[in-house]
Batch of 2 targets.
Target 1
Amino acid sequence: MVLKIKNKNKLKIENKNSLNNSNKSQDDIVIECKELNLWYDDAQALIDINMKFKRNEVTAIIGPSGCGKSTLLRCLNRMNDVIEGCRIEGEVLFQGKNLYTKDADIRLNRKKIGMIFQKPNPFPMSIYDNITYGPKIHKIIDDKTLREITERSLKRAVLWEEVQDRLNESAMGLSGGQQQRLCIARALAVEPEILLMDEPTASLDPIATQKIEELIFELKKEWTVIIVTHNMQQAARISDYTGFMYLGKLIEFGNTEQIFENPNNQLTENYITGRFG
Ligand SMILES: Nc1ncnc2c1ncn2[C@@H]1O[C@H](COP(=O)(O)OP(=O)(O)OP(=O)(O)O)[C@@H](O)[C@H]1O
Ligand SMILES: [Mg+2]
């Protein structure tokens, strides 16, 4: 045994009746990488990545700095497109359709696949305007609907109680943990299918981190979460599946308990026991 997973059962209690993963079929795969390769100019950053992400599950991606975690996450909603010199081969199938075709609707796909970054990045505007920004882009203009979306999104992100009396105040006045939950609420406001999170608690204190972890656990009832984290305990606590990456390759991918308690690959074991990285 490599790492005993503590606290996981505590978080799992409410989720007792969820489907047994092993019974899940191909239909439960919401997004999938097939033979995905990526280069930044001549340097290859992703090598033959094959990975399937299940609906309503949390998948953690772990691995040492520079192994390609953020690059992989960005591939899942075509955020690497804006990086000059970046070239991609292979497929990312979202609900069965390749994101990387000429006729793929990038704007719609970005709405369906939201991203949360390491550093909370609220827009320098009011809390209300942050939440309604996305819906307005998608042509929702009715005030009543926008107010409903704001309340619903903030409640889903467990921030409503703290901000309901200050919706017109600047989002920049919120604490770091509140700002990160605001960013999650902003992503939820456009009704995504998947939330990509790149080290979402790396800049937060332990209390704010716990709130985000509890929130992620709630979110998976309705959404699929893919999270990059350097925190092994966090990956073990909140994820159903874990993928370990090293030097651009997916070395091992499986059930979180198996990865942390009984990894198949020596590199995985070395990493999660802190022997490198
Ligand atoms: N915009 C870019 N241009 C050129 N090379 C890049 C770019 N972004 C990342 N890389 C390179 O690609 C490789 C993978 O980087 P990536 O940021 O995906 O790693 P990571 O696993 O997220 O690391 P960390 O844990 O430090 O965030 C690294 O060698 C990095 O230097
Ligand atoms: Mg990164």
Target 2
Amino acid sequence: MSLFDVYPLFDITPVRALDAFVYDENEKKYLDFYGGHAVISIGHSHPEYVENINRQVGMLGFYSNSIKNPLQEKLALKLTQASGCKGYQLFLCNSGAEANENALKLASFHTGKSKVVAFKNGFHGRTSAAVAATDNPKIIAPINAQQEVELFELGDLKGVEETLSKKDVCAVIVEVIQGIGGLDEATSKFYRQLARLAKKYDALLIADEIQCGFGRTGDFFAFQKHGIQPDIISMAKGMGNGFPVGGILIHSDIKASHGLLGTTFGGNHLACAASLAVLQVLRDEAVLKNVTKMSEYFIKKARQIPQIKQIKGRGLMLGLEFDFPIADLRKKLIYQHQVVTGSSKNPNLLRILPPLTIQKHHIDLFFNALEAAL
Ligand SMILES: Cc1ncc(COP(=O)(O)O)c(C=O)c1O
């Protein structure tokens, strides 16, 4: 049986990884400045992470959500402490798309409405409501196109208000920093006004923190810089450091009822063990402070390279914009210099999404490789 061929693949086969490095079957070592697409938060195979998952799988890997699972409550407590977000409830699922799908569904249940406001260049996943709110017609199948979604430029408050004022919108969903779209972020004024407008017209504000959350910007959540309080916050990626886990934080004004949401695997024992290990390491190793420090160091070095026309993003969610398409540069970096990086919708933007635990020597390695490749 062949694999359903949907991914254009780099010709590399990683078999193990440690911290910021990935090793192929010939022990060739690659510097991971891509983090498997912003997933690796505490570094590959962190010993505490490995131990926590091993210990848990030896005890109880999975049982149903119809039975008590105190690990979920522990995760909710630790998430409150790590994020500082008080007055939220936690629902756990398995991926980013599922988190957004549940967030949108909940907004619709809560408000009794169905239209969604989203933003151009946004990405929210590939399930039905999430993909309909994603600005990429190529991945929206006819079955998804039935959703009512209006897309606006990030920053267009006038357009958003015109639509919201019709009072048929259940949710406004926004990536505070757009990932695949190319690392654009609006002003604090915009996000505050957006929150105000959502409230005014009885729509829920959903912050998609799947890529920019869990410490990637140096704040626990990217929206925290803007002083807003979203109604729902969706998370995944860095939350499990590679273990599939996602979730939504739901404001306490939104009431639960039995059967409203549900999942077989979401929040299982292993997923909780993975995410608890991530939170523990973020705290013990002061990882968020490291993100801020390493980001400053990275940006300082990037400014010394004349070919870089713009540096975008925050923390360790960064983009280097050139005045030429970066596809060949990215290939050179990976095949000739063993450095893995990311791309985006903007063909000139090289995306940098390393583990949040990187140190200066990793950044030095990256810039040596980049200069040689350029
Ligand atoms: C901002 C954002 N939202 C949602 C998703 C979807 O997450 P998943 O691929 O886990 O379904 C992604 C994945 O890249 C993302 O970057």
